[in-house]
Amino acid sequence: MPKLLPVSTLSEAVRVSFNDGIARIAAQVKPEPFKTVGIIGTGLIGGSFALALKRAGLCERVIAAGRQQSTLLNAKALGVIDEAVSMEYLAQHAELIYIAVPVKAFSKVLQQLTPHLSEQAIVCDGGSTKYELIVDARAIMGERIRQFVPLHPIAGSHQSGAAAARSDLYEDRKLIITPLAENSLDDIGLLAATWQSAGASVYCMDAQLHDKIFAATSHLPHYITAAYMNSLLAAEHHELFFTMAGTGFKDFTRIAASSPEMWNDIFYANKEAMLCQLDSFMQQLEEAKAYLTEGEEDKMFEWFKQASDKRKNWHLKS
Amino acid sequence: MPKLLPVSTLSEAVRVSFNDGIARIAAQVKPEPFKTVGIIGTGLIGGSFALALKRAGLCERVIAAGRQQSTLLNAKALGVIDEAVSMEYLAQHAELIYIAVPVKAFSKVLQQLTPHLSEQAIVCDGGSTKYELIVDARAIMGERIRQFVPLHPIAGSHQSGAAAARSDLYEDRKLIITPLAENSLDDIGLLAATWQSAGASVYCMDAQLHDKIFAATSHLPHYITAAYMNSLLAAEHHELFFTMAGTGFKDFTRIAASSPEMWNDIFYANKEAMLCQLDSFMQQLEEAKAYLTEGEEDKMFEWFKQASDKRKNWHLKS
């Protein structure tokens, strides 16, 4: 039975996460600065990590590689990175490599990096789904999988690109590590301390549990609001709907405005967990529809009240 | 084909609304102050109306009646009303009567008022659904239905009760009139000017169109978030879900915290329109589920993009 456990030692955190639990870990020391950090994907997520490390004094030089030379030069001009380099150079010289590209592009980047990777480098990523990505990473990296520590920072913005990068994006946000059995405690600990210095609260959990949790709390809501918006668009007088919609509608549909590219990838990368939660949601819709059709007002009341009570007592935790 | 038409005259606004359209009407004059306004239901909605009229100098005296003497005395102590009176006294003396009670309690209040109602009084309400309520009002009031002008102010708050009442609750919010063929243009015009003075933007539309629009943009979202919350509660590790949920979840589920009493009533009062929109929503869920199951990524992308584009280009209108 998974639980959230605050644990004091790293080995305990990893043990808990391997046993299908969640551990909140607090690093006790600030790490030594990295000489060179390599970023692939200098957008909001990667760029903000670079800026946060610089601000915390945790990094002497940030280098970046990627397909689009113009994107890299823009990130450099904005002061988000120090140097644009080749993928090969980055793999050879960076002590810490952060792959912050869309879920779908991850494998290709890892294939390019792996042959040139130095023995000391730690590779991590920012993907919103973890299990399938780890399967791919194992296939690509083989024995070197020990160098890959999968991460998921729970942060974002409506904006994207290097221009949107901010040194405080991870401040009071969660950073989740889904460690592998092959990872060394030292590497996991170093990453935990680094992200903590960037302002994040660090958690450890199993990759499949991670995917279940985020299917339920993040991916499914995006899917639901898209279905909802499309159901309005299918209605006869829908322009009037949008004219008259108010503040409840505004908050409820905010996430529907998210990037179609990003969410399409996430839906497929986390398909099994999504389908499981979707079925449960559709069952609830059917249950309450029966209450409505058959005039079972008391049952409907209890059903709504259970949801309402839970939401009233819920508060955002960092 | 209904349209939103900005119209300059009241008779044009009423004509448009009778033809299944929506008209935005702007009153040209501020009305004379009412001597006595009567409120039934001195909570957030009724109390804020009283305060807004006083602030606008539109009312000399606010009287209130209701079942709970303690509620009335509390509203008086808070300065929201001037006097607590009997239902009979209120019906005889108030020029404008605002029934701001839950949808389910409306008929009973109207039954108590009607036998004592002065010939000059205008009765209006604040119910979130209009068609069934009008059917009930016709049955209760008979010929005096001409004195009843159905309204719906699009405003609310998480808080309730007289203590939550604010003179600016209707500021920059919509007020919808769903006029009856029996209403006089003078009465409709007086209400439009009064609510406009209270800060609201006034619209006229048909009651059934109103119910369709709010089923789609307000009632269904409440139903969806309740189903979603209950689907999480049905899952094995749901406490972890709530621990890890972030800002997207926070906005998406905000309306799930609403009053179960109020929303239960609304669901049943607007059952037909709700079921119609619910079916359309469930069709969208099924459609995208097929895209997910069968790996039709391009179709899923287009489906999500359509929703995303619409939401990106939508802005709250007052």
What keywords describe this structure?
homodimer; 318 residues; alpha/beta; Rossmann fold; 6-phosphogluconate dehydrogenase C-terminal fold; 6-stranded parallel β-sheet; 5-stranded mixed β-sheet; 11 strands; globular
Short description:
Two copies of one chain form a homodimer. By secondary structure, chain A is of the alpha/beta class.
What does this structure look like?
Two copies of one chain form a homodimer. Chain A is an alpha/beta fold and 318 residues long. The first copy, chain A, has two domains: 202 residues, Rossmann fold (3-Layer(aba) Sandwich); 102 residues, 6-phosphogluconate dehydrogenase C-terminal like domain (6-phosphogluconate dehydrogenase C-terminal fold, Orthogonal Bundle). In chain A, 50% of the residues lie in helices and 15% in strands. The first copy, chain A, has 13 helices and eleven strands. A six-stranded parallel sheet of chain A has the order 5-4-3-6-7-8, sandwiched between helices. In chain A, helix 5 packs parallel to helix 6 and helix 8 packs across helix 12. At the A-B interface, helix 8, helix 9, helix 10, helix 11 and helix 12 of A face helix 8, helix 9, helix 10, helix 11 and helix 12 of B.
Compile the SSE list and pairings.
The structure is a homodimer of 318-residue chains.
Chain A lengths: L3 E4 L2 H9 L3 E4 L8 E7 L3 H12 L3 E7 L3 H9 L5 E2 L2 H7 L2 E4 L6 H8 L8 E4 L5 H11 L6 E2 L1 E4 L19 E4 L7 H13 L3 E5 L1 H27 L4 H7 L2 H7 L6 H10 L1 H23 L3 H16 L6
Parallel strand pairs in A: 1-2, 3-4, 3-6, 4-5, 6-7, 7-8, 10-11
Antiparallel strand pairs in A: 2-11, 9-10
Helix pairs in contact in A: 5-6, 8-12
